[in-house]
Model the fold of this input.
Amino acid sequence: MRLFVALLPPANVLDEVEAAFAPHRAAHPDLRWTRRPSWHVTLAFYGEVDERVVPRLLPRLERAAGRHPRRELAFAGAGAFPRPASARVLWTGVEADLRRLADSCAAAARREGVDVDEHKRFHPHLTMARARDPLDLRSLVAELRGYEGSPWTAEEIHLVRSHLGPRARYETLGAWPLA
Done:
């Protein structure tokens, strides 16, 4: 099963994000805009994990969550991966340092033999759109640079299963409160 650990923003915060990005959809038909039910902030991507590992992973994630405090976060601005001039992903960033929490979530999986990619640079964000072919999104990123969302408190982490298909679907397998 395909798994990741994420923070799930509250509905009122997602309402703001949606309002900020919605006016730009029609002007960028080459982007495949993500659906609101899929919006999350990934802390650790595990990829394919044997389902027999999951029962052992759950208590490790619970302990990891308990070692980190609740955090006040806010979405702000926009950016693109790999870079705005040749982008495949449009995102809004997270104003907070989540590296230690992300590292703990990755370590929990590694202890159970899950091969977590540690070399990928961690950049907390909410993916807003994807492009099949690289696009120049410099003007869009510049237009959204001033976006500042309301603060919200990340209170728990979620282990999420991803069901791939024409419309990916996410299923929460467990959630644990931050300290």
